[in-house]
Structures are given as C-alpha cells and as structure tokens.
Design brief:
With 167 residues, the protein is α/β, with parallel strands linked by helices. The chain has one domain: P-loop containing nucleotide triphosphate hydrolases (Rossmann fold), CATH 3.40.50.300. It is 42% helix and 19% strand. The protein has helices at 29-35, 54-71, 98-108, 124-157, and strands at 2-9, 12-19, 45-50, 77-82, 112-115. A 3-stranded parallel sheet has the order 3-4-5, sandwiched between helices. The protein has a two-stranded antiparallel ribbon with strand order 1-2. α2 links the parallel β3 and β4. The radius of gyration is 21 Å and the shape is globular.
C-alpha cells in the first residue's frame, strides 16, 4: 500500500510518499522487495508501532530496525507511535509509554519520535511537516556539498592550485 501527501515547504511543494510494508515480513516479501531494489529512492524510514500493543514496539527493535540497518543504513529513521487514542483505553492492560518509545528512538538512532492517531488525524500534519522540512534540509545540505566539490574542481581546472600558485 502507498499513499502520498503534498506538503508546502520553503516555497516548494514536497511530495511525501509512504510505502506501507506491514505484513510483508510475515509473507517473506520484505526481503524480496529489497533484493529487487524497491528501496531505491527512499529518503526517510518511518518505523511505526501500535501504542496499544507493546509487542509491536519490540518488533521495531528486533525486526524492522535491523532490516533498515542492513538495507537502508544511510537513511534517516523516524519512530512513529500509532493509535495514541488507545493508550488510556480501560480495556487495554498495557500500552507503550512515551518515555519507553522515546528511549527506543534514541537507541535505534531515530532522528525523531512522533505519536499519531487516525482519530481526528492527531499528530499526522506535524509528522508530515517534519518529514518535509527534514527532506528539504537534507537536499540543500547535499546540494551545498556538491556545490563545494564543483567549486574545488573548477578552481583546480583553471590552472590555480589550492595554494594559489599557477599549475
């Protein structure tokens, strides 16, 4: 499943496209997708878990984070707690505390932790804004590095070395 959202950011429209791989591991499809190169073009990894199901947080640490580290090791990660509205549901015996989730986010090297819920769409706009902002910053940072490399190359090719002497 995929879905996308256009987020205006710094005079640009950033299209945030999410690919939901839930259940793919169960069917053995997750690894196959990576072998086929489905991860190319990925700029951010969202590791989502169900706040009302502590086992799903353990899956992030034990299953999804190792997969991301194997196949997407240079890609920034965001930990996302879903179903925030169920945290205080009296029918649930346990839920994941923000403290526990934040600790895991630090352990796995996530750049941020967000909590969301489909009820009222709480936290989703903030998450998408953060993603768009991070992508714009990352792209401009890479462009700056590229410009510096081009600039150094032009300086060398013009016959002037880094010391200023003619080459």
């Amino acid at each position: 499943n995929t879905f996308s959202k256009i987020v205006p950011r710094e005079g640009h429209e950033v299209e945030v496209v999410c690919w939901d791989s839930v259940g793919m591991d169960y069917y053995g499809l997750y690894g196959q997708q990576f072998q086929r190169g489905a991860h190319k073009g990925v700029h951010m990894v969202l590791m989502c878990f169900d706040i009302s199901e502590p086992d799903s947080l353990e899956n992030v640490e034990d299953v999804w984070n190792p997969e991301a580290n194997n196949h997407l090791w240079r890609i920034p990660k965001i930990l996302v707690g879903c179903k925030k509205d169920l945290r205080n549901d009296v029918r649930r015996t346990m839920s994941v505390s923000p403290y526990k989730a934040d600790k895991l986010a630090m352990r796995i090297g996530a750049i941020a932790y967000f909590e969301t819920t489909a009820v009222g769409m709480t936290g989703l706009q903030e998450l998408f804004n953060y993603i768009a902002e991070a992508l714009v910053k990352r792209k401009s940072k890479k462009a700056g590095v590229f410009r510096r490399l081009i600039s150094r190359g032009e300086r060398r090719s013009s016959g002037v070395s880094d010391s200023g002497a003619e080459g």
